[in-house]
Amino acid sequence: MNLTISSRPVVRVGFVAAALLTLAACGGIADDAPTDADPQAFCDAYFSETQTAEEVAKELADIGTPEDISDDERNGFETYVEGLDDEGDKANKDVSSVQIPADDQEDGNAFVTYAQNTCGALQAPTEDPSAAPSEEPTEEPTEAPSEEPTTE
Questions:
Q1: Residues with Cβ within 8 Å of residue 60, at least 6 apart in sequence
Q2: For the chain, how long is the longest CA-to-CA vector?
Q3: Considering just the CA atoms, what is the radius of gyration of the chain in Å?
């Protein structure tokens, strides 16, 4: 039985990026991936919007995972990379949902949660210069309202 889950939402100036997570059996391209990756390099690869799914999978396999990843999250990473590699030349930014075997669901969810938590601060939205507050003074009343009661 295969289950579908969504993965990797990251807000970037109003854009939500997501990726396909197809978890497969052991023996994938990321099995020997390093376990001491720089978190920024990991996140940059994971959320790449300019590469194909296959290119991202190969880059993630080369980069590996940061040291703080748990065993379950690492297992999810390995199967995620294998499934992403199977997507071939589909744009990574267009990969949005996952089909995973039911027995891999927990590790897959653990990895997606790990990536979201790890990369959230590192992938902060770019500030929109048009949204910056104006430096011009605002018009404010020059006279404070009277607090004396009025009679009619």
A1: 30, 33, 42, 45, 46, 77, 81, 84
A2: 88
A3: 23
Give the residue from 31, 25, 29 showing the smallest Cα distance to 54: 29
Distance CA 8, CA 28 (A): 21
Which of 35, 34, 36, 62 lies closest to 48 in space, CA to CA? Answer: 62
d(CA 86, CA 80): 10
pLDDT (tens digit per residue) in 5-55: 445 443 332 222 333 333 334 468 889 999 999 999 999 999 999 999 999
Calculate the CA 69 to chain-centre distance. 16
| Domain layout of the chain by residue ranges | 2-122
Q: Cα(135)–Cα(128) distance, rounded to whole angstroms?
A: 16
pTM for the model stands at: 0.66
